[in-house]
């Protein structure tokens, strides 16, 4: 599946040179409702849940992608107001998880099984708990629907200055393969600089604006 990752110019160039993208930590994502997207009232459960989040965030991270690069909001929010770059990857279907968008929090009854013991210590293989946890990790408020997001979860192993990265390859058949480099409408980087960063052939696209719709498209 082709999926897209938006970055400001500097970070995008670094990603291309080092052939890796940064893994986001679960408790440091930009949505304040991330992992807090369900009904919960009991103080004891709130405390337990914060402990669970802390444990999860030490071992598991996430890479966020969009299924499309035509939405101008994505470029504005994640690619430095269209001055950045979007990287298009081929990613194996089994590695990606689709986000579910909804207008209200997940009812507590649908996830309460998580609080039946410590799923990361006492009962790590409980299938019902795993299903409930996956629901929490893949549910966001309806207002985020414009992102058309899919996620790839990754283990946090070796860090560099407290940051974690996932390597990608260029034009091969691995889990994360770079296929497209899309330069934003306001991006000033030229083709030579991109070629200096990427030694293998990928498709280079310059973005433009469609005069008949509010979409970012391939420039003519």
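Q: What amino acid sequence fits the structure above?
A:
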């Amino acid at each position: 599946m082709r999926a897209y990752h938006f970055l400001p110019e500097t970070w995008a160039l670094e990603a291309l040179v080092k052939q890796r993208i940064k893994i986001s930590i679960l408790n440091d994502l930009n949505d304040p409702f991330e992992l807090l997207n369900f009904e919960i009232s009991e103080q004891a459960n709130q405390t337990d849940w914060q402990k669970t989040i802390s444990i999860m965030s030490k071992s598991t991270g996430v890479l966020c992608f969009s299924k499309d690069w035509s939405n101008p909001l994505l470029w504005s929010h994640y690619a430095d107001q269209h001055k950045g770059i979007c990287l298009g990857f081929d990613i194996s279907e089994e590695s990606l998880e689709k986000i579910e968008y909804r207008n209200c929090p997940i009812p507590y009854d649908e996830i309460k099984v998580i609080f039946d013991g410590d799923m990361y210590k006492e009962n790590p293989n409980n299938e019902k708990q795993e299903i409930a946890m996956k629901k929490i990790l893949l549910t966001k408020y309806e207002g985020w629907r414009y992102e058309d997001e899919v996620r790839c979860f990754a283990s946090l192993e070796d860090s560099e200055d407290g940051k974690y990265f996932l390597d990608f390859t260029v034009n091969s058949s691995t889990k994360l393969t770079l296929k497209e480099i899309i330069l934003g409408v306001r991006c000033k980087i030229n083709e030579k600089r991109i070629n200096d960063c990427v030694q293998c052939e990928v498709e280079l696209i310059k973005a433009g604006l469609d005069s008949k719709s509010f979409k970012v498209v391939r420039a003519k």
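Q: And what stands out in the fold?
A: The mean pLDDT is 90.
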